[in-house]
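Lab notebook, bench 4. The sequencing result for the construct came back, and we need a structural model before the next group meeting so we can plan mutations. Quick request posted to the team channel:

Model the 3D structure of this chain.
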Amino acid sequence: MRQQMHQQRYANRRIKLHGFALPTLLIMLAMASIATLLALRNLWVNDQLLNAEADQLRTQHKAEAVLSVALADILGAASNNNGEATPNLRHNSGGTTQTHAFFPTSMAEYELLRQRLSTNTNQCSVGICAPNTLDAKTTKASYWKAQTATAMPVSANDTPYGDNTAWYWVDVFPQHSISTVNDSSIAPFVYRITTLANGVMPGSSTVLQAIWVHHSSISNTGQWRSWHVLHD
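Done. Here's the predicted structure in token form:
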């Protein structure tokens, strides 16, 4: 009798143990599934962050490359068309009836440029600007992003990303004072170059601003004085 009771208790205990095994297994499977999903989510988030960082880096490199395009525009004097040198209107004020923007070489030409740009809201046209004062808004990236209509667009020949992906502006500031206006060792103008480049991802863009100045008024070489990324 006692042996039968013992066997009955042992059988009941085995049934209870088997009853706990299935829920325990299900819980462990659920936890493993959750851990796998979290790992996959972390991989996806890291991949998105890496893509965003890579795109931002490419966009900054593109904006830096546009600085050299803008500098070449400042230094350029003539374009070659069918083997004949033709005047570059960006370096020629033209006649009194013309209204295009150009890079001045003297204070008289600078005043003419300011007169031509005086009707523009931000004193800019095709990337050439002659601001009256240093405006605090021009240190904000959002300001330049809204001014692409007055910028000089970078053509697809100068960037592998195609048209309408990069622009630049050149602010021309006089450097001479009344006492140094005839000093040839001092360059007449300082150029503030602002470049805007859009990335591949939506909303990705970089705005750079740099200062460049000639070594002297008779020199075609110069140096960069500053360089920084603009933010809001």
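The radius of gyration is 33 Å.
Will bring this to the meeting.
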